[in-house]
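Researcher: I need the complex structure. Ligand is GBH. Inputs:
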Amino acid sequence: MRVASFCVVLLAVVGVASASETDLAQQRRAAQDDTVRGRPARRPTFPATFMFGVGTSAWQIEGSGGDRPRSVWDEFVSTLGDREVLEAESGIEFHERYAQDAELMADAGVKDLKMSLSWPRLMRADGTAIEEGFDYYRKVFAALRMHGIEPHVTLFHWDTPTWCCKNVTTASSGVCDGAWADARIVKDFVAYADAVFSRLGDGVKYWTTISEPKTVAEMGYGAGVHAPGKMEVREQLRVGHNMLLAHARAVALFRKKYSHLSGKISINLNSAWAEPASGSSEDVRAANDAMDEELGWFADPIYTGDYPASMRARLGEFLPRFTGEESLLVKGSTDYFALNHYTSYYVKHVAEGRASGQLGMSGKPQPWDITLTSESSTAPIGKQAQSEWLHVVPWGLEKVLLRIKQRYGNPQIIITENGIDIAERPSIEESLDDSQRVKFLDAYLGATQEAMRKGANVIGYFYWSIFDNVEWVDGRAKRFGLVYVDYDGKYGDKMLRYPKKSLEHYSSYMRGDAVSVASLGAARESTVEGTIKSAISSFSTKRQGELHAVTGMALTMVSVFAAALMASRVKVTANEDEVHDEHTTLV
Ligand code: GBH
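Model: Output:
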């Protein structure tokens, strides 16, 4: 009887939804058109299984606590100045504060945390494991899991142990020779991966091997503005090659020796969107070549077994070759596509040999300048964030997702990083009032939803970053967090964390308030059933009448939720107050 009346009400709710289906469909189309034009849907909706997570990386948050052995990033910042050294040594003191941080995240509704492990904490040069380091991560995982947070583990996010270097120097040629430029690093990386899988592998569902091989190669070995500070045309491409091989061999090991862990593994590939500066066929081709480098440099080998033909044509013998065995090893070496995406830029064709610009956004010479026939345009493509390189272009994310779908066989995609930095303001109230980030989130999630509607198989989204943290060479100056970190103790104790407005906003996604009507049918049913069951068990000794009351209450909650959901959809079109030009955004 109870179950029957529950079904009737549920059907009624679904009925109301389908009765106004035409209206909703119209609103949705209007909202989606808006997204394409740069105006986002207010509160995009997602399948019940969609993961909403947040990201961090070891070197940016942990600090050097626990006598952490040094990485190339510690060496690199020591060439920059005392301030940089201090910032790196402190991080945000996550090494000491992880337990409270886990609690804070749990309170905000975080269930999925992307984090990296510090390779220097875990392995010695002789290939033996540092057990104290593993104990530390066991404690971190335990604290997270106690709060219902699942760690998504990245093995390497840029902090190469200095023992991988042939020499450590502060000479102008960079702080470290060898390392990723030397193929011997592959076996060290695989030994490290082996030690991690065997000691920490239990229960980890999602892994990535290397975060952004492109950034390390371009910024660290090409432009020289990241550790290890090298500017070597050939090395840059060699580094990318070695990273692909290290990744692929670690994955082969994982699949062979650790299949019982049932985890999924990938590599974090960053790609901006390169938009043709005009509709001319030359600009279109130039932008397509740019995308071959943004995305294809690493994704093509993984999905096809070789580099893009356009890169081979331009770079010739500069670009390393895979042996037949390596090509087979690299091809198919991911279980899902882990995409880091932040921004977009225009690309225009320039006459051969005269290109002064570059495709990496570094402003420094790139190897492909040699024969490059395109350059990034300075035309504004979207509002600039705190960082000069970051322009807010939600539709660029949609285009990257659809390119992945089209070119690589519609893989499952997790957006493993996406975020915006906003400068600190004069008062804490202003710094916490980050409406721009709130809009950014809705806009990029709206673009994600639009790509999904067009068939992209996106299963998760991770905002970068949960905390303000050490932004590499920019240190504490750039703030990407949903949580403000008071490094100097301006407003209380040093290093205290203060939630920004965006955390509260993103919490509603993480808690499941953005689940779509279609998929909510099932999700809501199980939630309601769960609510009723737990209510029944706790009320089990009470009278039947009270049980009916509890059931009624749960059903009311369902209807209210559904009504609220629909109301929020109506708001999508009601929101006419913001007008935006094509190719610009509200943020
Ligand atoms: C991410 O990379 C990193 O994974 C993360 O650690 C970092 O905190 C986050 O970015 C925010 O920066 O200086 O003009 O040459 C994103 C990809 C590639 C974006 C390199 C910045 C340098 C632009 N990054 N790019 S420029």
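Model: Summary of the prediction. Residues 57, 211-212, 215, 219, 270, 340, 342, 361-363, 389, 417, 464, 471, 480 surround GBH (CB under 6 Å).
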